[in-house]
Design brief:
Distance between the termini: 10 Å
Helix content: 25-40%
Strand content: 15-25%
Largest sheet: 9 strands, mixed
Shape: globular
């Protein structure tokens, strides 16, 4: 079985990364549950479109420049990790059948090349707000937040935090059909990357973290107990609990598409003291260890 999610392989571009977790992935085209292995890598130019897709999921229906954020992460990969499917699994997740690909080799090769651009299933990155301000990205993000957040007290606190050069803006996004245990390795790697950057003098010691998490609420639900915000990713519950301040807002669907959305879409902006963020990154392994250990025992029983 692959290594536990908390044990990430080296991410240096000069080394071939090893699988750090095995898990299930749902092929939406065939409705099949697939067994795949994932690898952790430093993002590079080949990952641009895959990362842009993930960034767009976070800042959906906004004027934020998704491509600029992706380019920034590629240019500053030291505190970023992308999750990709290992080479031996890439054929497994292609929607075309192998026989058809063998028959149409040229078309299959072209499709593979195109799919490789989107072979990014998760991303976590810590971005220094000072650098984000220098290239205009921070302004776009602030405009997006300010346009949705109604809590004026929180807006004032957020503005002050984002002026602090030691604040980190953390982007964490993954496809929801990935197991939550994959977040363990991602966040522990991020914590290690930040620590290394500070020790080497490439980053000031962080004081605060600002991050955005996704959530939803059911439409037309009359029961008050079922009207609460449901977070899209299980690990985000722990960061929500660690936040010193938070504000949620709804991403309103276009009126002509409203009936196509079965739930109401929300985002929560979190302000977290870095010490609490650090502790949360480290404790995720314990939070999800039971599920992972159960999967490992099942695998051992079948062996």
């Amino acid at each position: 079985m692959a290594e536990p999610a908390g044990k990430l392989a080296s991410k240096t571009n000069s080394e071939k990364p090893e699988a750090f977790m095995a898990g299930t992935l749902v092929d939406e085209a065939d409705k099949e549950v697939l067994q795949v292995s994932f690898e952790a890598v430093q993002p590079n130019e080949d990952d641009f479109w895959g990362m842009r897709t993930l960034v767009r999921q976070m800042f959906v229906r906004s004027e934020v420049n998704y491509g600029a954020i992706s380019d920034f992460i590629i240019a500053n990969p030291g505190t970023a990790t992308a999750v990709k499917v290992t080479d031996q699994n890439r054929d497994t997740i292609q929607p075309a059948k192998k026989a058809k690909r063998d028959k149409e080799a040229t078309e299959a090769a072209e499709a593979q090349a195109e799919d490789d651009h989107y072979n990014v299933y998760g991303l976590v990155a810590a971005l220094n707000v000072k650098d984000l301000k220098a290239n205009g990205i921070l302004k776009e993000v602030k405009v997006w937040m300010a346009g949705h957040i109604q809590d004026m007290e929180f807006k004032t606190k957020l503005a002050a935090v984002l002026k602090d050069k030691t604040t980190l803006f953390v982007i964490a996004e993954r496809f929801v059909n990935l197991p939550p245990q994959i977040a363990v390795g991602l966040y522990q790697a991020l914590h290690g990357d930040i620590t290394k950057a500070v020790e080497e003098g490439n980053m000031s010691a962080p004081s605060k973290v600002v991050m955005v998490v996704k959530g939803w609420k059911p439409k037309g639900e009359a029961d008050p107990e079922k009207q609460g915000l449901q977070l899209t990713c299980d690990e985000d519950d722990h960061f929500l609990s660690a936040a010193s301040d938070k504000a949620e807002f709804e991403i309103v669907a276009p009126s002509d598409d409203d009936n196509n959305y079965p739930v109401r879409t929300f985002r929560s902006v979190l302000i977290i003291d870095y010490a609490h963020f650090q502790a949360t990154c480290q404790m995720l392994g314990q939070a999800f260890a039971t599920v992972y250990d159960d999967e490992e025992r099942i695998g051992d029983d079948k062996a």
